[in-house]
Amino acid sequence: MSLTELFPDVMQLPRADKFRLMQFLVAELAREDGVSLLVSGAEYPIWTPLDAFEAAETLMQMLGNHRTAAS
Amino acid sequence: MNPIRFPYARAVAGRTAAGELAYLPINLSTASNSLDLSGLLDTGSTVNVLPYTVGLALGLIWQQQTVPVALTGNLAKVPAFGVIVTGQVESFPPIDLAFAWTQSTEAPLILGQVNFFMEFDVCFYGSQGIFDISRRVNDR
Fold it and tell me: How far apart are CA B4 and CA B134, in angstroms?
């Protein structure tokens, strides 16, 4: 099926479906180019341990003990 | 000693331009092993983070660790222990770096506030894709 044959059907689609079709095409092009897009509802890892103050305190104590033992 | 300048770099080939971040070439060593690595300068990270596989490659033994540390975010799900290794950046003198050694194999090597940013001053020039590093003032 050619694009010319597709156009009449695409134009008949409701607005929401046209939007979904556009999203699909963008995602498909990105996938072909090896670019991963963010997907709504998916979970993505953020490795930064933000506000890990307890861990920071523990590491500071370890460093203090280490330096005391070394001196 | 004068600051040393580094370019931003990509962690993984093929990512977008926004994937260029401040990755610092750093040598980490223990009594048994030494590795040339690339650590992400992460000012939002409260601590340094050592990935599991890197710790193993440095000769650390998970079962022998005795100081658990509680991380946050995605890393809160997996156990971590505090470890101290020697870190050296370029020609700066080696220093003790304390890391949260996570069991995660996916986390990057993170250089955070405790204690990387306590030891080094870093100036980011994000628009130019470069950053300068120098030792903290009282050690220059």
Answer: 7
Q: How far is CA B128 from the centre of its chain?
A: 22
Q: For residue B47, give the DSSP letter.
A: B
Residue B5 contacts residue B19 (beta carbons within 8 Å): no
DSSP 8-state symbol, B127: G
| Domain boundaries, position A26 | 3-70
pLDDT tens for each residue of A2-37 = 888 888 899 999 998 998 898 888 888 887 877 766
Contact B33, B59 (CB under 8 A): yes
DSSP B104: -
Q: What is the number of structural domains in chain A?
A: 1
Give contacts of A 34-63 with B, CB under 8 A: 34-35, 45-56, 58-60, 62-63
Token output for B23: 């990755």
Q: Going by DSSP bridges, is the β-strand pair B9-10/B20-21 parallel, antiparallel, or unpaired?
A: antiparallel
Is 70 exceeded by the pLDDT of residue B14? no
